[in-house]
Structure formats: structure tokens, C-alpha cells
Write a structure and sequence with these properties.
This protein is of the alpha/beta class. The protein has eight helices and eleven strands. It has a single domain, classed as Purple Acid Phosphatase, chain A, domain 2 (4-Layer Sandwich). The model has no long low-confidence stretch (mean pLDDT 93).
């Protein structure tokens, strides 16, 4: 994903992460260091707070709970401090950034239906809001007259001057729309455009590593299927 971004002129300081930096993968230390090296603009996801000891994992499913506990044991103190210091919501370049929902960020709700987006628009006033959490790319567009359009799947948009947008960019890790390629979003503020890009990677190798380190094998199996 970062190689694809670099090829398009995206450099350090322009990378935004919508949370869950760690949680399911076999290289949490390296991923945190990568975010620090890129000076990434980030918000916290529920798995980040869980790994940092700020969130009770009892309500996680068994696989996610095992991964969170495994991750917490491997992070260095400075890495845990970085994750615990991430805000739930922040604003950057006229966009609200939040892992789950601007309406109840600390409750980590999924935004997956047309109605979910309609309610979320009331919780932010900027033209743009980017979310993750569900791992499912989607876009909600609110028009001046109050109408809201909703579309699932990878978005490719020209941003209008009067419309407001709530966009789920999908997920670099654990995509769940049946496409195992990594998903990331490219916002071009000069051209006022946005697109979700898909990037192939060594899914088989990552799945093998997940099993090798002792994480639940189901986490690797999900990567192969993109669900």
C-alpha cells in the first residue's frame, strides 16, 4: 500500500491511518514503527486501545481477543504509549477522521447501512469525514436539500463544492468485501477527487506467518478469502 502511495507522490507526513494499526497481524512492532517513521496522522481504533490496555477485550470475539492479548505482550512500552496516546477523533485538511463513527466514537459502532450514515452526518460539520472499522468500502453523500445517497463498494469520486461526504476507505488489513487485496483511499485535495485503490500483496505469506507465530489460524484464513 505504501509503495503504491509513493508511486503516486504521497510521502511521509501525508499518510493518514484511521485506526486498528495493530490487532490481527503477526508484526505489530514493525507496523507501529512504520507509522512513526512515516509521521502518520492517526486516530485510535478499538484494537489499538485494547493492545495498549485501555479497552476491555471481553466483548471481542475469541479470535480478536486472542490477537489483542498476543499483541499486547509484544509491544514495547514506547509503542504502547504511542497507541494509548492516539485520539479517537481528529480533524485534518477539512476532514474529520475517526475509526468508527463521529456520532459515538467511543462505542465503536459499524456504519454499514444508509441510515447509519444519515445519523452520522449530524455529528460532524466538515465537508468530509473518513471512517474505517467495518473494513467495508462505502460512501454516503449528503446534498444541500438533505438527501443522502449511499453506495457500497470502492468509491471513485469528484468532490462537489456543496455536497458533504462520509467515506469508509476499506482496510489495508483484513478486507471483508470478498476481495483479499489491500484497500486504501487516495484524497487529492488539489483536484478535489477521491478513490479507493486496491493493491495485491503476498496474502499467502502473511497467512502462513500468522499461523507460524501462534495466532488463531482463522485470522489467516480470513485474509485468503477477504472476509
Amino acid at each position: 500500500m505504501l509503495a503504491d502511495a509513493r508511486a503516486l507522490g504521497v510521502g511521509p507526513g501525508a499518510v493518514v491511518c484511521l485506526g486498528d494499526i495493530v490487532g490481527y497481524g503477526a508484526d505489530p512492532e514493525a507496523v507501529v514503527d512504520l507509522m512513526l517513521g512515516y509521521d502518520a496522522i492517526a486516530v485510535a481504533g478499538n484494537h489499538d486501545y485494547a493492545a495498549a490496555g485501555l479497552l476491555d477485550v471481553e466483548w471481542f470475539n475469541p479470535f480478536a481477543r486472542a490477537a489483542a492479548e498476543w499483541t499486547a505482550e509484544r509491544l514495547h512500552p514506547a509503542q504502547s504509549r504511542y497507541l494509548s496516546g492516539l485520539p479517537l477523533v481528529r480533524e485534518h485538511l477539512g476532514a474529520v477522521l475517526v475509526h468508527a463513527s463521529p456520532e459515538d466514537p467511543e462505542e465503536w459502532p459499524y456504519l454499514v447501512s444508509p441510515g447509519d450514515g444519515v445519523r452520522a452526518f449530524a455529528a460532524f460539520s466538515t465537508p468530509l469525514c473518513f471512517v474505517g472499522d467495518s473494513h467495508l468500502p462505502a460512501v454516503w453523500i449528503r446534498y444541500e436539500d438533505g438527501r443522502v445517497d449511499f453506495a457500497r463498494g470502492a468509491a471513485r469520486l469528484t468532490l462537489g463544492p456543496e455536497e458533504r461526504y462520509l467515506i469508509n476507505v476499506g482496510s489495508v488489513g483484513q478486507p471483508r468485501d470478498g476481495d483479499p487485496r489491500a484497500a486504501w483511499g487516495l484524497l487529492d485535495t488539489a483536484r478535489r477527487s477521491f478513490e479507493v485503490r486496491r493493491v495485491p500483496y503476498d496474502v499467502d505469506g502473511v497467512a502462513r506467518t500468522i499461523r507460524k507465530v501462534g495466532l488463531p489460524p482463522e485470522l489467516g484464513d480470513r485474509l485468503l478469502a477477504g472476509v
